[in-house]
Amino acid sequence: MFLLFFSELRLYLHAVTETKLVVDTSRGETLRINFDITFPALACSILSVDAMDISGEQHLDVRHDIIKKRIDAHGNVIESRQDGIGAPKIEKPLQRHGGRLEHNETYCGSCYGAEAADDDCCNSCEDVREAYRKKGWAVSNPDLIDQCKREGFLQKIKDEEGEGCNIYGFLEVNKVAGNFHFAPGKSFQQSNVHVHDLLAFQKESFNISHKINRLTFGDYFPGVVNPLDSVQWTQEQPSGMYQYFIKVVPTVYTDVSGHTIQSNQFSVTEHFKGAELGRLQSLPGVFFFYDLSPIKVTFTEQHVSFLHFLTNVCAIVGGVFTVSGILDSFIYHGQKAIKKKMEIGAWGYGEPSKREQTTEIFSLLFFHGGSTQPPFSCDSSNPETKTLPFCQTGLPITQRARDLVSRLTLDEKISQLVNSAPAIPRLGIPAYEWWSEALHGVSNVGPGVKFDGTIKAATSFPQVILTAASFDPYQWYRIGLAIGREARAMYNAGEANGVTFWAPNINIFRDPRWGRGQETPGEDPLVVGKYAVSYVRGVQGDTFQGGKLHGHLQASACCKHFTAYDLDNWKGMNRFVFDARVTMQDLADTYQPPFESCVRDGRASGVMCAYNRVNGVPSCADSNLLLKTVRGEWDFKGYITSDCDAVVLIHDDQGYAKAPEDAVVDVLKAGMKVLIPCNLRNYTKSAVLQKKLPESQIDRALHNLFAVRMRLGLFDGNPEQLPFSNIRTDQVCSPEHQILALEAARNGIVLLKNDAKLLPLPKSTMSLAVIGPNADLPQTLIGNYAGPPCKSVTPLQALKSYVKNTVYHPGCDMVSCSTAAIGKAVDIAKQADYVVLIMGLNQTQEREALDRVDLFLPGRQQELIVSVAKSAKRPVVLVLLSGGPIDVSFAKDDPRIGGILWAGYPGEGGGIALGEVIFGDHNPGGRLPVTWYPQDFTKVPMTDMRMQPEPSSDYPGRTYRFYKGDQVFEFGYGLSYSKYSYTFTRVSQKNLYLNHSSPLHTRETSDSIRYKLVSELSAEVCDQRKFMVHVGVKNHGDLAGKHPVLLFVRHGNHGNGRPKKQLIGFQSVILSAGEMGEIQFEVNPCEHLSRADEYGLMVMEEGTHFLVVGHDKHPITVVI
């Protein structure tokens, strides 16, 4: 009844006459449990996580990092938050601070309406009775007293009725046998006692249906895929306990020559205990009982009998699979686990035959088969649709789209306006999902991609802010191209429900506190615009230069969030109601240029309008922005979608529309096409019936929507014969893409400080201390809007590959660092030759819906860094993982902190890239795409959208172009292990004459500077004034390096709306040690030497402009 792999069996047989067995079954000490489980009908507020060791005692020293996501009935994420182990705490003293205690306040519970004053508290049921007596009220409802014990818990359940919860993260426990469980429960404070209560609601009915998206046990678990992955249980009884008994035996066999064979044998059994068992009631929940006791088998030289050998083997196998009473392990392993593995693609892409499912129990073979074909319209074998005009590929897409829309009923038309568009069977039109995400790799954030089929992961590139630090547009294009290919491959395999991806995020990173700044390419409009163009061309399948894409799209990219959106949730002001007051000058000069580039040059097929209002008008209802600017001036031909629920907010939260129907009318008339969510269908039809909305407006929206689907090839018949149909699943997580992810991480990492050339560390380092909460958290590397990565190597793991004697301590309980083990970290640092501290932020500190309120490191991180630096033998290296800037002035000025690296959120290759940079296998060349401000900047309200300074009110302005204040590090700052110098070798123009046209077009500014409007200069004049700039670059170092060169322009006259300086070009150059090279920039004066005036018009001003690269500058005189 047992399974032996062939390689192990060979070793056993060899041992019969030559060796004896020495068996070590001593128990290990630690286990890391990684989990990702979805409960579609159990709210996060009542879902607890806990762990017990083998004795049944609670793990009081468990390390953990747990995230809970509230999800609605459709699986959409409502909210994401960090959580802990133990039952959820009730944060509902109803009088104060929205139910949360502040500082050292005592608990103030509710009197359930009987409070005599606002600060009255009822902290016991007797207090409630007394409060009612004083009011002269009777406690008529006996349930009230029971409810007072629960302190609002039932209300919380009611508030989240119908919701589910996705919970993921890790538990690190100090045994390798025990259980961990997910169960409905609560905890509360009663007097001075903290009560942990899992039993309080056992008479309630809990639906604990669940899906195990991912479950692993650190380095112990065998293979790539757990047989429980994707297992789904549907609730059949009102309550009860699901039990999974997991037995994994990590076994190492060592032969007489010292060669080892590692084996991981496993078994799983599943049980369900009903709610009633005699008089005892089972706790509701999902319980995982595990035993991962390691076994070491060593063969030593000695002749033994075959019988003695078999006795030892049987003892091992018997002991392995009888622990915890799991007697049916091999049956499960053979008949279910292997079958499940094959079904979900652990050993291939196809589903094996029944014969293969049984025979392959005894041999490990790899299967590669076909994939499921995606749905398509206009099947040539369907006589009812193949002759319809919208199926005729020879006709123009606009004509085909109009024909299709003309055949739809009103209800069918309205049904297609939402992101989850249903099928129209009578016309052979399949369902389509518009909402998928691919910010820096195909993601499972939207409903379009779930990674629940044979494809379990996608290449996770660095978060965009780090990718931007390379200042390399061609690399950005290659990343977009790789993402587009993986997206199309998943769709071709039937594992994505759409090919429209809502990325890139090209909002300006205006304020360093913005939680979503990490998603953007930074603060400079030129950089953001070039990133948008490069990414969009790549995703959609165009060439790097653009203009070659005619007809089909590889995938559809969407420029978001239009416009002036860069505040999520700051001090009570949220994005849903925020009214961004923006001048015409700032719109034209800062906020709009990236979107114009994305649409005009990138030819994006989608645009998403933002939640916020701009100057009083909701972005999604602003016809001046959407129709006049985007569709009119920029000639946009694609679809415009709202952000999630943005249309509902126009009525419900912003009060801009008087009725929900009016909100629908406003956005459709303004030019929007996709409404989210689905409940807007009813309002749309109501608006038509009330004659508020002409049906022609719906038709116009649908023309664009179906045109995009046609450009994607979804209405051209069998996709096997179409462009991009040959992109197969081998493109997903391909070696080429994973190398690109590593390359992007390398090129983005920024060296901020390197006193006395501390870095790179010598590879001969004998001992290394790695300290910090971000050193060994793979999820931190990925950032937000990411899918599961192809692989994950943490910085700690990478550094261990360089220094065998590496000692690690997190230093903090978690990234928030409310608790720090400073003494332990100091002790470790004292013993090491070198110390690397890996600190910073993660998604608990900055993310969508969470802006920061300060720029300091969280909690006690700074205290930990300083203490370790004081104690170390040598100056330490500080690595910062973050999306937004951090005020690390203390580290910049501390000589005991010799090196500082910023690595953003570097993606799946980030750990390896950091190791390579720290030990000199890569010469860093990244440069900051944002200004790093000091903490003092947080005095500026985040709601103030002005870019330019106002000295009279001490307003310092924003971004490197206008900001007048202290900086921790400036935009474009970045060191290298080499030193580079620059010089202007040749500039083809010194003077630019614009005085040949009529003097009637010459105007003067308020400070008496003559100028002309760029719009009044002909395209011919602008083209004729272009000139070339040649810059020589030399590498003075001992290492080869890739180095971005930034070209700025500065106006001779400061102030009056003019930027301090403006980036007009950037290129990367690769130079060997001691090598000199030359790069060229083309300068277009109408674009690069102009600026926006107070009316939002671009103007060319007379006077001297200076081209600046490094410390060298070259004057250019403009004559009007």
Description:
The protein is α+β, with helices and mostly antiparallel strands. The chain is built from 29 helices and 46 strands. Strands 1, 3, 7, 12, 13, 16 and 17 form a 7-stranded mixed β-sheet that branches. Strand 8 and strand 9 form a beta hairpin. Helix 12 (about 525-540) runs parallel beside helix 14. It is globular and about 90 Å long.
Can you summarize this structure?
This is Fibronectin type III-like domain-containing protein. This protein is an alpha+beta fold and 1120 residues long. It contains 29 helices and 46 strands.
Topology of this structure?
Elements: H1 6-18, E1 19-24, E2 31-39, E3 47-53, E4 63-71, E5 77-83, H2 125-135, H3 143-150, H4 153-159, E6 164-173, E7 177-184, E8 186-190, E9 193-197, E10 210-216, E11 231-233, E12 240-254, E13 260-274, E14 276-277, E15 280-281, E16 285-291, E17 295-301, H5 306-322, H6 329-343, H7 354-359, H8 397-406, H9 410-415, E18 420-421, E19 432-433, H10 464-468, H11 473-492, E20 500-501, H12 525-540, E21 556-562, E22 569-570, E23 573-574, E24 579-580, H13 584-591, H14 593-600, E25 606-609, E26 613-614, E27 617-618, H15 623-633, E28 639-642, H16 646-652, H17 660-670, H18 680-689, H19 695-711, H20 735-748, E29 750-754, E30 768-771, H21 778-782, H22 795-800, E31 806-809, H23 822-831, E32 834-840, H24 861-871, E33 876-881, H25 889-892, E34 897-902, H26 910-918, H27 959-962, E35 980-987, E36 991-993, E37 1003-1004, E38 1010-1013, H28 1019-1024, E39 1027-1035, E40 1041-1051, E41 1062-1071, E42 1076-1083, H29 1085-1088, E43 1091-1092, E44 1098-1101, E45 1103-1109, E46 1112-1119
Parallel strand pairs: 12-16, 12-17, 20-21, 21-25, 24-26, 25-28, 30-31, 30-32, 32-33, 33-34, 36-46
Antiparallel strand pairs: 1-17, 2-6, 2-10, 3-7, 4-5, 4-6, 7-16, 8-9, 10-11, 12-13, 14-15, 18-19, 22-23, 26-27, 29-34, 35-39, 37-38, 38-44, 39-42, 40-41, 40-45, 43-44, 45-46
